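Dissemination and training. As part of the outreach component of the grant, students in the summer workshop were shown how a complex can be specified as a set of sequence lines and then modelled as a single object. The example used during the hands-on session is reproduced here so that future cohorts can follow it. Participants entered these lines:
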Amino acid sequence: MLAIDVVATMFLAAGAFFMITGTIGLLKFPDFYTRMHATGKCDTLGQILIIVGCMIYEGFTLITIKLLMVSAFYLLAGPAGGHALMKAAYVTGLPVWKKGDKRM
Amino acid sequence: MDMAVMERGNKTFSIILTFCIMFAFWMLLSAWTVYLVEPYDLFIVSSKGILAAIIVSFLTYEIFVPSRGENVILKLRRFIPYVGWELWQIYLATIDVAKRVYGILEVDPQIIEFDTTLRSDFALVTFGNSITLTPGTITIDIEPERGRYIVHAIAKGPADSLTVDQTMQKKVGHVFMEE
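and obtained this result:
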């Protein structure tokens, strides 16, 4: 039991680390498009690791399957949502930050 | 006349298939523990599920069972290893972005456009989502007629991996047989 707890905690900690990295990127990157890179990508791996941690903690029950489905639906919906935001920004003509420009 | 009969048979088959999958899904999610605890009101519990499954299958059978599809089994078999490769790419993508956040790699964004050989809806969506999940690139827009993609890349390296190497185009093209 203790070993399972340790492994699950390691997964949860790794997930939390990537989530925090995404947030730092959101604050640090220069414009909208690069911020979407930080949040979109770090969230994807972060949620996978956190849900895997929960699955290991729970053991093999029905809740494990439900958690797997939550993860799978996030993998489908996450990129689509990021794409919708990027398209909206691009179509309305938000300028793209180039290297050497001022921070937006 | 024959066509009409076949059409109707197809529709019935689609509805029944959707119903079976929806009801199995409903049992998986909501009815399993109830069966174990109270086996005597099986009918009362499952009737709600049957009702919900009937409504959903009449609403969504057209989307759920694709009317025209070739080599579906082979495509599905090729799709599963692709998902595994994609999970590995998600891991690499996050490490890549984390390095850029902590200042180990540089940030030099650019917008690139390129054409692909993909045409069907499912292939276009899969490739668009794959671009977003792989290191350093996000799909902005897709023009389905020409298979043209507009992509935002965070630096020159990720952009080159799409326009020069074209590993992922070939993989998706192989899965959906649209090379």
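The mean pLDDT of chain B is 79. Students were then asked to discuss how this feature might be tested experimentally.
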